[in-house]
């Protein structure tokens, strides 16, 4: 199925201006911008290995034009940090923050749902809650995931094995 949502040419022009502002030559030519129909909980992401910025399809709504600009700046700043400094920088570290602020946006990682027109699935998908019991001390431990390699910290520090037994798995 081909993606019918097309990004306006102005999106590439915005990225070009940001590249000039940030000193990243031809930023718009080094990136691919796409709307994603599969994106559910986030508004955008940047994949450095493919040089692709994916944007949530709800940003195609003309009422989200302002948010589209902010998300585009956010993701383009990730790309610019990658091109300028390499992989060693934190995703929302000081280099990224400086670029976003230079573009006159607030460096934020979440946009309140009330500011976005359309339906954004921000709630976590249903999962499980696991209950474990330490075979040595009987302590009860609860978690959203499980791993057979986990051990009870208190028992391990006391010289015991600290093996955990899975008691139950509940749907959340």
Short description:
By secondary structure, the protein is α+β, with helices and mostly antiparallel strands. It is built from 5 helices and 6 strands, in the order ααβββααββαβ.
CATH architecture classification name of the largest domain: 2-Layer Sandwich
Q: How would the global form be characterised?
A: elongated
The helix/strand series, from N terminus to C terminus, equals HHEEEHHEEHE
How many domains make up the coordinates? 2
* CATH level 3 topology of the largest domain: Zincin-like
How do the strands of the widest beta sheet line up side by side?
Answer: 1-3-2
Strand content: 15-25%
What do the pLDDT scores average to?
90
CATH superfamily annotation of the largest domain: Metalloproteases ("zincins"), catalytic domain
Output the radius of gyration: 22 Å
Structural class: alpha+beta
Helix residue percentage: 25-40%
- Name the poorly predicted regions: none
Distance between the termini: 34 Å
Main pleated-sheet profile? 3 strands, mixed
According to CATH, what is the class of the largest domain? Alpha Beta
Number of strands: 6
DSSP summary: helix tally: 5
Would you write up a description of this structure?
It is elongated, with a radius of gyration of 22 Å. The protein has 172 residues and is of the alpha+beta class. It is built from 5 helices and 6 strands, in the order ααβββααββαβ. The longest helix has 21 residues. It has 2 domains: 107 residues, 2-Layer Sandwich (Zincin-like); 44 residues. The mean pLDDT is 90. Strands 1-3-2 form a 3-stranded mixed β-sheet. A 3-stranded antiparallel β-sheet has the order 5-4-6, with no helix packed on it. Helices cover 31% and strands 19% of the residues.
């Amino acid at each position: 199925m081909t993606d019918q949502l097309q990004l306006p040419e102005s999106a590439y022009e915005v990225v070009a201006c940001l590249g000039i502002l940030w000193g990243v030559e031809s930023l718009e030519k080094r990136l691919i911008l796409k709307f994603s129909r599969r994106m559910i909980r986030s508004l955008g992401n940047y994949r450095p290995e493919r040089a692709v910025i994916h944007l949530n399809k709800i940003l195609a709504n003309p009422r989200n034009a302002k948010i589209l600009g902010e998300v585009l700046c956010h993701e383009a700043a990730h790309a610019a940090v990658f091109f300028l400094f390499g992989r060693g920088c934190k995703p929302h570290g000081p280099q990224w923050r400086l670029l976003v602020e230079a573009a006159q946006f607030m460096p934020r990682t979440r946009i309140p749902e009330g500011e976005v027109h359309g339906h954004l699935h921000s709630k976590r998908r249903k999962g499980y809650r696991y209950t474990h019991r330490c075979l040595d001390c009987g302590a009860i431990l609860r978690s959203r995931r499980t791993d057979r390699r986990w051990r009870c910290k208190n028992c391990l520090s006391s010289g015991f094995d600290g093996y955990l037994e899975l008691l139950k798995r509940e749907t959340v």
